[in-house]
Amino acid sequence: MQKEKKLDDKNHAHHEEQMKTDAGGTDKPQTEKAARQENAGTAVKEQAQKGPEDRLGELEKEKAELKDLLLRKQAEFENFRKRLQREKEESIKYANAMLLLDLTNIIDDFERAIQSAKDSDDFTSFHSGVALIEKRLTQMLENKWGLKRFDSQGDVFDPDKHEAIMAEESEAVNAPTVVEDFQRGYLLNERILRPAKVKVAQPSTGNNETDDTN
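Below the sequence we write its predicted structure tokens.
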């Protein structure tokens, strides 16, 4: 009996201890909530206790910080804009560097041809040399840079490709036709770079009347 009584006392004591622990655990969240509310209330009180001068000082400080941030952002943007402008100018300045480098080789050829003509006084050789340089130049411009020269003689007049310098009537044509190239035109990657200056033959009035009759 005494043994059973001791067990009952032990169980009762354990039960009471468990109830205290549970009660403490339940009170803990409530205690934290109360502490947060108290801190919030303290902050509100402190804010309320601040006078207009204190609040004005804080606003002035925030204003100064924002102004400083704005000035720094403006300076960064200005530096970025200047760098882009500088890079653009350099790109334009050196855009034709490779083309000019190719042309320097042609200039060297001309110098050698001129020097050779001085030494030998052989006009035929000089003429052949210049013709060879001209051929080499036009081939280089066409193959590497897409610049192509075109002939117009015999073509139907095209105002996009041709600039008429002279015109004459002719019974040999039924439509305006280029009969002579004064200055040949150039294409750049199949787009007209410079129109050809040409002489154009126009159908004679007699030809037009004959066509109308037919």
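Confidence is low (pLDDT under 50) at residues 1-7.
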